[in-house]
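Inputs:
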Amino acid sequence: MGSYYINRTFFFDVHPPLGKMLIGLAGYLSGYDGTFPFQKPGDRYEQHNYMGMRGFCAFLGSCLVPFAYLTVLELSKSLPAALLTAFLLIFDTGCITLSQYILLDPILMFFLMGAVLSMVKCNTCADRPFSTSWWFWLSLTGVNLAGAMGVKFVGLFVVLLVGLNTIYDLWDLLGNLSLSLVLFGKHLLARVLCLILLPLALYMAMFAVHFAVLNKSGPGDGFFSSAFQSQLIGNNLHNVSVPEYLAYGSVVTMKNLQMAGGYLHSHWHLYPEGIGARQQQVTAYLHKDLNNLWIIKKHDSNTAGLLDPSSPVEFVRHGDIIRLEHKETSRNLHSHQHEAPLTRKHFQVTGYGINGTGDSNDFWRIEVVSRKIGKLIKVLRSQIRLTHVATGCILGSSGKTLPKWGWEQVEVTCTPYLKETPNSLWNVEDHINPKLPNISLDVLKPSFVEILLESHMVMIRGNSGLKPKDNEVTSKPWHWPINYQGLRFSGVNETDYRVYLLGNPVIWWLNLVTIGLYILIAIPATVTLKRGVQLTSELKELSQVLLRGGGQITLGWLLHYLPFFMMGRVLYFHHYFPAMLFSSMLTGITWDTLLRFCTGFLSSSTTARKVYGGGILVLVLLIMYSFYLFHPLSYGMIGPMASDPSSPMAGLRWMESWEF
Amino acid sequence: MLGFLKNPIVVTAEINMNLLALTAMGLISRLRGLSYPRAVVFDEVYYGQFVSLYMKRIFFVDDSGPPFGHMLLALGGYLGGFDGNFLWNRIGAENSLITQSRFMLLESILIFFILLAVLSYLKFYNSQSYSSFSGSWWFWLLLTGVACSCAVGVKYMGLFTYMLLLVITGLHFWHMIGDQTLSNVSLMCHFLARGLALIIIPVTMYLSFFYVHLALLYRSGPHDQIMTSAFQASLEGGLARITQGQPLEVAYGSQITLRNVLGKPMQCWLHSHKNTYPIRYENGRGSSHQQQVTCYPFKDVNNWWIVKDPGMQQLVVSNPPRPVRHGHIVQLVHGITTRYLNTHDVAAPLSPHSQEVSCYIDYNISMPAQNLWRVEIVNRESDTDVWKTILSEVRFVHVNTSAVLKLSGASLPEWGYRQLEVVGEKLSKGYHQSMVWNVEEHRYGKSQEQKEREVELHSPTQMDISKNLSFMAKFAELQWKILTLKNEDTEHKYSSSALDWITMDTNIAYWLHPTSGAQIHLIGNVLTWASANVATLVYMCLSLWYLVRRRRRIYDIPEDAWQLWVSAGGICVGGWAVNYLPFFLMEKTLFLYHYLPALTFQILLIPIVLQHLSNHLCRSLLPKSMFSALIVAWFSSVYLVYCTFSPVTYGEPSLSVAELKDLRWKDSWNILIRKR
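Outputs:
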């Protein structure tokens, strides 16, 4: 993806641009020239310089350890707890694997942990508000939030975490009657400035850079509206000059108005038998192609008269009945009462007739949204609805992908439900008519805000469009905390160099147990406090750490994990890693508190300290040993698969679902 | 509602009068001309079918919700007349609620139970303060639990209200924990009582609904196919007729049919026939030209396979039978053609990444048979489990290539008679139902000769021993199917998005008289909806204002008024939110009537807000009387709107075209106007 920035060609991806821009920058600085195609996993890099980009990601990934260490230290004021967390992250094979390669996740996690750390730091500065360090940490939180949001939309969860924390904070301040309202207003303003305006400005700036850098036409064009495309150098809509009004005999392309809608398309292939009538397919296609061209004809006159150069130009008017002839195959856009291939309640749309001669089912009424009868139709700007005259249905694109016989293009149907949605609206994009004068159309120039909004809509649609196909085995959110199944990073066969993304099972299962443990400890602790039982100051402090610090971390874990259960898109194992970071921090805090609490009952303080130190040491050693066992997962392994008893990893395949 | 909150302790005769009057008004407005129209209205088609299925005791599955609501409807029908289940509502002139509750649809029952649950919880909470563990305390607590389970049992939407009540109970209990005058023991008792009434009883009742459902419906019906063979076998008349008396353990020499567990795109059985794969496919790829193996959605003699021990020649079951266990290696012989199930490194016809599965024909082209399969029982309890008819879910792992026999889901072209493609999946990632098969029909093969065997294969199975599923297993399966069964993403003329509901931008036409313009619509009383929205907005703004002011220790209203404001409003706004907001996350087809439970809560909020405004904001006499006048004006205009729309609520009298056009207050409303 970084290549696109270096080549400055426009592309489309479901994630916001910051991560890719940073990788692109790293590649640019380290001398990568953007020529490597990055087509499929397993391709060799050959002479291309990729170490800079990998190094950059690995560096950001390594920063997670100190960040987590500092966060836990700040929350618990306990060195062992912080060390335990750090060891968990250092020796987790999953974290290592994920941060070794050119991926967005290490960048995302870097910003995410940065935001959490600066938020916690800012909380500790709360006793001296408006000091330099307070301002520093507060604005750093904002910067990191913008960064996290700018890499992936998952960054939204950390924004939520910080937001909730801030609301809680402000509520606290509001209840403090020694604080005057003016001072409270200042607090509020400072937070609005640093946590809302600053990130927003950075986020917009990031997109501004993105659009400024990518000013050439590239493979992502078709996903965007005609207006958007006119901004890209090399696109055929850039500095376009076309006849302004639609006329009979014009050759046009029609683009569906829904975000990421395709061009009305047809080709020689027929609908397969059993799916409607066996006539030529009509689809929506996202890429530019000769098969997207249609000729506008009158419903009752024949072709010859229109091609005659001497005959006067006749414009198409709102409410006219027309016929659309596919230029390459000379078949008419046709619909009839057969059910559409995927959306069963709609009618099928086909290409019908020979050399433009069809039947009355080829007639469509062309209408412009919110216009009066008889008005002319503008290219690009008019929103057009095509109503089938015989059945009264409306031409639309359902947005569903056809199976292989339809070349995985998008289904086009005729919907009998007369609802006004962008699905059933079209605009004319290309317009070729030699008889009409070309007019330059720079009215189209969209504002930055429009571009921003559109690109977000397209990204969101793209994200929700990543649906699992039928029969495809996908990763489920409940798989993740139990480390049920990893992700194959490279290599399938015995002879390949294989890297497998899988968490260190000891660490992950420890984390899982700790979450249960935390709930078991936290509930009695809160109930005791609520009952007003008198506690020693030591115990009070412990419960404070457990409930305040642990609570924040648990909230973070929940926010980064639960939403995935509601997502319809394809999910992968690596989506759990942000939550895993929180889970590891919770483990550090919980075990530390638990050991302190237990050793508090021992009579002598020296044995207590020994037992406490010993406990932490045992945990750390356990983690290190498990890392020794599982390190080939991330550093790569060659040789027989682990399902083969002769493999050195055979004894380590503790779950049947692991495939290394 | 307001009456109860105001007078939580003394239920006076006056309130009873009010209640009676309101009930009577509600009944009148809902029962008026109930037998009209004498035709099926909208979804009545749908639920009516289910009711008749109950009458006939035929098994069905409905993905819209658990069975309790259907059962109630059936009971109503059974007793000889449908009575307006809707007994109680604050405002009698709400067109949409009237329309909805007049017909045999589930929403009215749901709303009834939701309100019952909330009402009894409030009663319970009020009796809490003076008489814990008294008779009425228990009564209301238990009633809350029962009403909750009924609401959930009618539709899963009831779950939202149930959750809300649980949260409220939790909050109230949390306050009790802080109350240090209570002893630990009595706290524990309170906790246990609530747990019993609000968790254990609803769960038990929910299970009992299913128990009754399954007990009533013991005949096979239209939805059998989506259930597993084991489930079907427990229904009378369906698969049970065939499978009853089959031998349980699959042995070497058994004749079996193998059903794919996935059941998608349709249920089908492993099948083979004389025809071979075409030498070349349309795209030029080659095949092995061996006999086709497919998955066939109909019962057929070609679905029979014989389990053979690779080490022996015989195709009959020895005496005593040698059962096949997990991990055993078998060959599968196609009964009619006696060819062996085989897979090899040839690309499958439609899924080129997988291996072709065929019945082996030796063409002498150095393509050896690879027909050994390892039986893996997926749901085994130990590694020595025997392969059982119906109960065992099995994977067939090819010994040479470790490919797994899988239904790809694609249907073959003409040469394969549009049957479903079966492939050998090389990269068998984890567990997927398309790779799992179970034995459905089964008998011990007895005939030595092929001719005899063919006769045997054609004859129906008959033997004894039967096996029944436990109730819990059936319940778990049915519950899972109800939750996961997805209706095809249908678009409906009257479907709407959740956002349209607040502003009443949509309606549903229920019924249209075949000749006159008379019609019945689900359409809200615009004024009520708007005022409900305003009330919600006012409530939220005022709450926020009070909350911030209280935080700064400025108390605008007395403490008890604040408590009332919070608890009453909290329930109403909370009820509205939990019944409405989740719809934004849902991907199913949504209709206006989904909003009605939320609307009910919202309407309940109106009097609360009005009362509060008149009590606390209009302090002097003049504004107070003006306020009363306003309320009277509001009530009369609500009634006026109700009268205006009553023709489309009740379906009579029929209106002329012009009148209908006048009724179309919003462009988005879809009022049917007959063309002349």
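Remarks. Residues 138 and 213 of chain B are 29 Å apart (CA to CA). DSSP finds 19 helices and 14 strands in chain B.
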